[in-house]
Amino acid sequence: HLEDNEYLLNSVKIVSTDPSVNPKSYRSYVRQEANSKWFNLFKVPLAIYNTASTDSTRRINRILYRIGEAPVVYEQYQTELSKQSLAIALQNQGYLHAKVKADTLIKKQKKVDLIYQLTPGRRSYIKSFRYSFDNAAMQQAVMEDSAQTLIHVGKPLDANTLQAERSRIIDNLRNKGYYRLNKEYISYTADTLYNEDGIGLTLHFQRPHQVDTAKDYRQFTVKNVNIYENMEVQNPATDSVRYRGLHYFFNHKIKLSKRVYNSHIYIREDSLFHKNDIENTYASLNGLSSINYSTIQLYE
Predict the structure, then answer these.
(1) Helix intervals (H) in the chain
(2) CB 229: neighbour CB atoms within 10 A?
(3) Which of 30, 122, 208, 243 has fewest C-beta within 10 Å?
């Protein structure tokens, strides 16, 4: 039952003025969709929902509500949010001057068809790429793996690629002992060069504000590897023992063999902090049927 100023959203369509941009790729950015159809023809879920009366105390009505689909009432603000999301998605793929408009066509029986039109404009490509560092040691550590970069001259300016490159660099550094680093240390600037589709891209590696400069660019070494079985770290243990570089804390008896622990824990004393060792240890321990769950806590 619709109010006087309400309309049923009958259909939603996305079109593009650029044949190379597939509108289907942007469907997930639409915030409000019309009721679903069976076999792309009939809105059976909506029809089932409408079959029920307003009396929710009756069992048959509750069943119909559950298996049916409530009518989608058109909402203008959802359309505005969708336009913003679609524009941002296009810009993130290098269409820096993309525009999106929405047209509505009001039909009989208080229904409205909604059409989003994408106008991507010219796509921006990377014309040049360089690095900027605030620390010589970090420059050396990053450039050692620069051949594996995901950013290449001549490729479109893509925000997903830039984000993936940030993750790749930080993961590599954290596998070299740089425990404190995170993606906030990497940022980009994009400058227009010869024309609007040529971009000069710079990757900046620098400390964020208000960080401990003495520690952040230091490589960390694992000092001790302590295992607490069936107990919290802060609780006192009745017994402890060392075995092949692992220090066990427990009450009365270790339930799982020390050899099993040793073969499933990849973190070792006096080794550089290695992000992959943490992840592999998690996966290995949690894969054991005799362990319900495991946690790894790091202390400086």
Answers:
(1) 44-51, 59-67, 76-92, 136-143, 159-174, 213-216, 258-264, 275-286
(2) 15
(3) 208
The angle at the Cα of 183, spanning 178 to 185, to the nearest 5 degrees, equals 75
Domain made up of 8-119: CATH architecture: Roll (3.10)
* Single pTM value for the model: 0.78
Beta bridge partners of 115: 13, 103
Q: Which residue has the tokens 């929710």?
A: 56
Residues of the chain with CATH 3.10.20.310: 8-119
Give Cβ neighbours of residue 264 (< 8 Å, ≥ 6 apart): 281, 284, 285, 288
Which tokens go with 63?
A: 């069943």
Which residues, including other chains, have CB under 8 Å from residue 119's CB and lie 6 or more apart?
Answer: 16, 17, 18, 98, 99, 100, 101
For residues 85 and 31, the answer to whether their CB atoms sit within 8 Å is: yes
Q: To 5 degrees, how large is the angle CA 43–CA 5–CA 73? A: 30
Query: Is the domain 125-216 a CATH 3.30.300 member?
Result: no
